[in-house]
């Protein structure tokens, strides 16, 4: 499993999309502005759906923007190598997406007044969605079976399993700053 991942401070990232230097710059140097909106999610939790909804809210329901601008340009992924330069040069309020765990999130966030939309999905749903997603992608090693993927998920191997505990820490520490919604209790 580890051959297809960049392991950074105990977190696996698909080696195709991520670089150590970009993750470090995201954490240490990236400035979250007060007018920014950050969509913080666990992978395979409905991030793209949420981005589409927020973009429609921002345009008062006008679909022209979402139909003409790719999702990765409307809400770039802070930690990905292609999005980081796009975000630092973007003018005005930014819509930013991230799966980064608490300890890797930009330090500037904690002193900003940025709005955060925090989404958690039932881990069983995340497991199944992740399994089928990763089977179809070439970004990382695919598991041979759902059973194998389940074992990787529980051990914290592969894309995203370890991150769950770290993301929950956002809710626990910044409950007054972060709005969160989940369909499970």
Short summary:
One of its GO terms (molecular function) is sulfotransferase activity. Helix content is 38%, strand content 14%.
Number of helices: 8
CATH topology assignment: Rossmann fold
Q: Note the quaternary state here.
A: single chain
- As for the number of domains, it is 1
CATH superfamily: P-loop containing nucleotide triphosphate hydrolases
What would you report as the Rg, rounded to the nearest angstrom?
Answer: 16 Å
Amount of helix: 25-40%
Annotation, overall tally of beta strands: 6
Question: In percent, how much strand structure appears in the residues?
Answer: 5-15%
CATH architecture: 3-Layer(aba) Sandwich
Calculate the terminal CA-CA distance, rounded to whole Å. 32 Å
- Spatial strand arrangement across the major sheet: 4-3-5-6
Shape: globular
Domain Sulfotransferase: 34-160
GO molecular function, one term: sulfotransferase activity
Subcellular location: Cytoplasm
EC number: 2.8.2.-
